[in-house]
Amino acid sequence: MSDKNVSPAGYARLSLFFTVNEAAKALDFYRDVFGATVLVRMEAPDGSIMHAELELNGVRFQLSEPMPEYGILPPPAEGNMFTVTQWVADPDAVFARAVAAGATPLSEVTDVFSGDRMGVVRCPFGVRWAIARHDRDVPVAEIQAAALEWTS
Predict the structure, then answer these.
(1) Which parts of the chain span the membrane according to its record (predicted)?
(2) Which of 43, 51, 42 is closest to 72 using CA atoms?
(3) What is the tens place of the pLDDT at every residue in 7-48?
C-alpha cells in the first residue's frame, strides 16, 4: 500500500483528537468563535458527545466527552499538555470573539519575535488556543536568541 492512501478521505496524515467536558457546548463554541464546521456528531444514549468531527481552515479534527474507562481524559484544570494554533487573517478580532464567548485570555494579542501577531486563550473547555497571523519570516537564529532572552 502506498503512503498516499493511509488516511481517511479529507484527513491529513497527522490529525488531532482531544476530549473536553461539555463537548456539545464546545462544538457550538468552536463553530461560533473559530468558524469550525461540525461534520459528524455521534451522541451516546445520555446525549453526551461520543465522537465528533470538525473542520477548521481545511483541517479536520475530532473530539469527544471524557471516557476515563478508556483513558480518554479532559485537559487538566490548570495548564495544558498541548496548544492548538489557528492561523487567521485578523487575530485581534478572533481573540476578542473568543474572550467575549467565555475564553480566558492567557496572553494578549501582540507582535511576537517569531514574526507572528499572536494571542493565546484557554477556551471554556480547557484547551489552550493560540490565535495567530504570520506577518514576516524571521531567521531561526534570531528567533532562538529572542526566545532565550524572553525566558531569561
Answers:
(1) none
(2) 51
(3) 778 777 778 999 999 999 999 999 999 999 999 999 999 999
DSSP summary character for residue 30? H
pTM of the model: 0.87
* 3 state SS of 9: coil
**Distance between CA 85 and CA 83 in Å, rounded?**
6
Predicted confidence (pLDDT) per residue in 79-138, tens digit: 788 899 999 999 999 999 999 999 999 999 999 999 999 999 999 999 999 999 999 999
Contacts of 118 (CB under 8 A, 6+ apart): 91, 107, 109, 110, 112, 130, 131, 132, 133
Within 89-151, residue ranges assigned H as helices are 91-100, 140-151
Backbone angles phi, psi at 145, to 5 degrees: -60, -45
Distance from the Cα of residue 125 to its chain's centroid? 11
The CA-atom distances, in angstroms, between 55 and each of 12, 82, 108, 137, 144 are 11, 19, 26, 27, 33
